[in-house]
Amino acid sequence: MTRTLRTLTVPLDGESTPGGLPSYLVRDDVLCWTRREAGLVGFGEVARFTATGPERFLEADIWWRHLVIEADITDHVECPGTGPVAFGSFAFSKVSAHESRLIVPEIVVGLRDGRTWLTQIRADDGELTEEGALAALNGWLEASGPAAPGSSAPGSSAPTASRGTPAASRGDVPAEAGTAVGRSETATLQTGSLSEEDWMTAVAAGVAEIRTGRLEKLVLARDVVATVPDGVNAAEVLRELAVRYRECWTYGVDGLVGATPEMLIQVEGRTAQARVLAGTLDRRDAVGEAGLPLDYAERVLAGSEKQRHEHEIAIQSLTTQLAPFSEAMNAHSEPFILELPNVWHLASDVKAELTEVEGHVPTCLALINALHPTAAVCGTPTQVAGALIRKLEHLDRGPYAGPVGWLDAAGNGEWGIALRGAVIESPNTVRLYAGCGIVEGSHPEAELAETWAKFRPMLESLGIGS
Is 431 inside a domain boundary? Predict the structure, then answer.
């Protein structure tokens, strides 16, 4: 039985971290949710919840609400992400053996809208003070091992609260986004559950099922396993992703690492937002094309009936499921081109004002329970697509394409879909995942090539390929 939580949140001097939150990504066990140098980073663990099965989101929601309603909270900052928070990762499938989890860290550093803060969370009777919180943070950083390239040594000087005390920098993130740190020349890559040929056969079988009219869209994933003899440095991977993919949400939870471009649901007060992606173009396809690259992407993606159809299915999937929880909703009438270092996507942002359901505004996890899995990661109709995925993929996705993110005691939270990511399975091995939306016009060879484009962020961050 978890004891009552006690938390203290104090402002930090933002000048102590000129590199933003990626400067704190110095431990392989760090909990991480960052975008454009802002977000949350956590250290340690004071409480954990795990579950499997179809009720995993609601069970986690009940656990969290009971935990925070009894918590003793002192919050001198009071914005989304302050006070007690939990980082979470959930299995994609309701039948997966993989344990979904919420983790409450001991120390959280947050950065939002130019404000930086530090939260200490305790489940014992120890005293909570600003000085103690700073000492605890510095203790985690001091124990992080060798400094990141370009960093001051962890623990060389503690960050300080924003009450005038000088503070040393935790160091900048790697300066050159195009250079992988600690690149290993001996890393190897092997196919996972299915060979490339077998996976393309599965895609063809999926297209055949779609042509029968049983479903409109199917998302098929595949895995590859990277072996890194020098050892997998999770902190290094996260820093690389945070620098290269600033427009994505870089996440790290219990060995699940990645940088997702897709927001399943973000809740702040009564406002919910989502970013839906469907339709992908490898940027390498534009090499040698005349004119501006974005013009090429607009022509190929927005001008493609197949890509537009796939995108419309994904939007309808989200808005239909979100509607019962909303009193007002709007979405882009036309998708926009999201430009990432490896690919372009057709993207749409959806915004909704939440309404009360049974007397209260729905929580993040209640919304996730209704929204997941969307057509963007499963297909439509959901039940038909899910059953076909289990038949064709020969793969337990684990946390891949499941919700990943954080929530606080006030009901705020950010939950992305765990895409462009991997699971660190041992000190030397990482399992990478990528998937594609399959519709009637899909071609197996093109879908296979798309998976390699989607593997690229993780491969590059591991120092494999270019």
Answer: yes
pLDDT at 289: 55
Domains in the chain, number? 1
**Annotated active-site residue in 59, 106, 217, 414:** 217
217 counts as catalytic: yes
Q: What is the pLDDT of residue 173?
A: 23
Residue-wise pLDDT for 319-332, tens only, equals 999 999 999 998 76
Domain that holds residue 339: 188-232+277-398+419-461
Mean per-residue pLDDT, 112-131: 93
Q: Which entry of 262, 312, 447, 450 is annotated as an active-site residue? A: 262
All residues at 6 or more sequence positions from 174 whose CB lies less than 8 Å from its CB, including other chains: 148, 149, 150, 181, 239, 240, 243
Tell whether the model's pLDDT for residue 165 goes beyond 80: no
Torsion (CA) 63, 65, 67, 71 in degrees, nearest 10: 180
460 catalytic, yes or no?
no
Going by pLDDT thresholds of 50, 70 and 90, the confidence category of residue 424 is very high
CATH number at residue 309: 3.60.120.10
